């Protein structure tokens, strides 16, 4: 039987590219997002790349942290062999500027939803002997001291904690959990969320703007790495060094990272 992949946040950005990358592997797809029209468009494009069925489910995951979406997906297509927890809100902004409601939404969509779906996935696969793959999209912000990103960082750090805390239990199963930790992706967040907090004419800010990753390439790398059983995927290569440097010399790292940001 062809493997079934469920992708949250598949109507745009990296999730859309992941749909195409899995379609090229001839896997069955179940694409989730709120915007029915955009999902249908992605599904049509994915269907050109595969002979396997492509289904969509337009749903707001904030309704009940994804529980009813999971039930509907399983009832319609069966338990997915691969779950990609990709949907998220950027969550950038000064703590003082974000409303309580905005911050709550970030914590819910970026943390409660993927961890609820992760638990449901693990419970349904715990005793099965065929391999299954759980892919959680974290962020470099989950481990680096990024200014004006407290809720983003907190929401994504929880996924890193889940990976550490579940490793002991998952090692006796056939469930492979991979946590993806990308730096900037070229999906529009940099311009909308980060750029307003950066100093004008900062060289580092300009370098950042030019170092955004191509979501199609990232999607391809995620698929190959997950199916190989990799547990952590930091992207790009240069970010792996920065993350290591951050662990070794956190004070210096914090100063360098803060350099392009405006103080208020
Ligand atoms: N962009 C970056 O620089 C960056 C860096 C590091 C990590 N990441 C992570 O990579 C992943 C993808 O990022 P991206 O830039 O591709 O995001 P994006 O372009 O903003 O797409 C987010 C997706 O989530 C869906 N979504 C939003 N709210 C939802 C809700 N309430 N219920 C269901 N779906 C919802 C959106 O679809 P609808 O609008 O149709 O609901 C959309 O498909 C995220 O987990 C992000 O945190 C991104």
UniProtKB/TrEMBL annotation:
Gene Ontology CC terms, in alphabetical order: membrane
Record lineage: Bacteria, Bacillati, Bacillota, Bacilli, Lactobacillales
Signal peptide start-end: none
Protein name: Uncharacterized protein
Pfam families: adh_short
Family: Belongs to the short-chain dehydrogenases/reductases (SDR) family.
One term of GO molecular function: oxidoreductase activity
Species name: Loigolactobacillus coryniformis subsp. torquens DSM 20004 = KCTC 3535
Protein's UniProt keywords contain Nucleotide-binding: no
Alphabetically ordered keywords of this record: Oxidoreductase
Entry-linked InterPro entries: NAD(P)-bd_dom_sf, SDR_fam
């Amino acid at each position: 039987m062809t493997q079934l992949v469920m992708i949250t946040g598949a109507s745009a950005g990296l999730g859309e590219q992941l749909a195409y990358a899995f379609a090229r592997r001839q896997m069955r797809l179940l694409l989730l997002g709120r915007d029915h029209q955009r999902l249908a468009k992605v599904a049509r494009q994915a269907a050109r790349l595969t002979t396997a069925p492509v289904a969509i489910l337009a749903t707001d995951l904030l309704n009940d942290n994804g529980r009813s979406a999971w039930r509907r997906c399983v009832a319609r297509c069966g338990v997915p062999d691969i779950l990609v927890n990709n949907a998220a809100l950027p969550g950038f902004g000064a703590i003082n500027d974000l409303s309580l409601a905005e911050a709550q939404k970030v914590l819910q969509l970026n943390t409660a939803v993927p961890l609820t779906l992760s638990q449901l996935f693990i419970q349904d696969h715990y005793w099965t002997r065929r391999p299954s793959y759980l892919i959680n999209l974290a962020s470099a912000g989950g481990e680096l001291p990024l200014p004006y990103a407290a809720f983003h960082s907190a929401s994504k750090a929880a996924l890193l904690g889940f990976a550490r805390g579940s490793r002991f239990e998952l090692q006796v199963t056939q469930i492979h959990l991979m946590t993806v930790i990308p730096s900037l992706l070229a999906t529009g967040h940099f311009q909308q969320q980060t750029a307003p907090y950066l100093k004008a004419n900062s060289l580092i800010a300009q370098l950042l703007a030019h170092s955004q990753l191509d979501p199609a390439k990232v999607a391809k790398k995620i698929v190959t790495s997950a199916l190989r059983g990799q547990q952590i995927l930091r992207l790009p290569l240069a970010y792996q060094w920065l993350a290591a440097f951050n662990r070794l010399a956190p004070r210096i790292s914090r100063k360098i990272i803060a350099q392009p940001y405006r103080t208020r």
